[in-house]
What we know:
By secondary structure, this protein is α+β, with helices and mostly antiparallel strands. It is built from 14 helices and ten strands.
Amino acid sequence: MPQVMVVARNFMDMVAALPASKLDMLYDSAFICEAVLRSFPPLAKKYVLQMLYVSAPVPAAAIEEWVLDEYASKHKVAVDRLVQLRVFVEVRDRRKEVSYRMNNKFQANMQKYLVSGGSLPREPVPSSITARLPTLTELENYALEQWEGIVVVETNFRLYAYSASRLQCEILRLFSRVEYQLPNLIVGAITKESLYGAFDNGITAEQIIAFLQQNAHPRVVDKIPIVPENVTDQIRLWENDRNRVEMVLSHVYEDFPSKDMFEQCCDYARDNGFLLWEDAKKMRLIVRGEFHEEMRVFLRRQR
């Protein structure tokens, strides 16, 4: 039987055809990870950024809810491409329901890449062509003219990113509220709500601060601090506030027939470590949810 050679249409098709073990080896390189990310359609890039700091598998049904119904076909294309290149790894639970988690190597390298400002290893330049390279002064002047990837943070928490990159805009959306985007300028604000969204996705205050410092405008790089101190302090405070809040399943008891019964219930719950909160004036109390049955038994005994 004659052998048929399948020719990949482009470099990424060739990468996708590699065995899983070789793909994982490729993702040891931050350069390859960035190249793969840039090759994705816009929706796939958004999914990667959305899950970049999520360690647990995300149900496929939950990811489908991230897009409107009319974009279902684009959603399928994006997920298929992510799975094909093993950036998303399919996971099935006991009920055979599908979830996706990010490739561990790809995820770790892209986290480092974003936090470090996108610096990647470069190949050494042969000395035979160094005479044609621009000077450091010329490079600095060009960077100032272009203002690409460059972020300025003001003391009022306003944020300006001089960039035309959609990817840069999506990165900023991870922890800030993007208000509008011009051809070369992204304007946004760092708010409590936007940071809480970042913290929920596993991004830490220190990672956000490091990103702002690494991508600071050249004119503020020499300043100390690079990012206004009141902004960095507030980012850390909001993270600490969020970490102090603990969600506890509980039950509310009210409408007691008498003050005596209310006080007896409070004493019982307090003595046994059930009580979370009480309001003697309105005769209401809140008890930990796992002790609801014990409280019901106690109340029946008092009637």
